[in-house]
Write the structure tokens for this entry.
Amino acid sequence: DVKVTQSSRYLVKRTGEKVFLECVQDMDHENMFWYRQDPGLGLRLIYFSYDVKMKEKGDIPEGYSVSREKKERFSLILESASTNQTSMYLCASSLWGRQEKLFFGSGTQLSVL
Amino acid sequence: QKEVEQNSGPLSVPEGAIASLNCTYSDRGSQSFFWYRQYSGKSPELIMFIYSNGDKEDGRFTAQLNKASQYVSLLIRDSQPSDSATYLCAVTPSGSARQLTFGSGTQLTVLP
């Protein structure tokens, strides 16, 4: 069974902290994505990667960075967490050329206090 | 203007009825269109995709695309309470084949 695993289901951090969200997929997918989901705003793309060490900005990259050192792992980094980054973060992966068929992780609900 | 717009709902239909979910998009160059279903507290999952104008049927689901009107819809026939979920419309923007742009979703409730 295909799997995208996010390291934490719930996370509480303080303003100004550096936050790492980890995502691992076991499907040998080339593409990996980080979205945030907020009520009324839907899913918004933060960053994506289509190869190891490659990354591209999505629609809302400000305040975030990413790291992809291995094919199966894609990390989202909040350099200095702020309250407006409180959100549900969803990691997803897909095969090269099949970007529409996203497999999502179960999400991390991040609260920044 | 949002790139992908959906009626947020909530939309309620009785069991056995047809549920109609609508989506409009602003990028005329968009080529590919998708419907994801998201149950409460769960992650989205792909249920339908359509690339060409017209209808595409898969079981009780029919996706309809009209590129001239920049409109895509999802019909669910013989709606069941298990269809109660949020339905997300997504499109591939022109010039970027690697990412999807999602609408904010329509919450559907099927009443027994």
Remarks:
- Chain B touches chain A through 23 residues (CB under 8 Å).
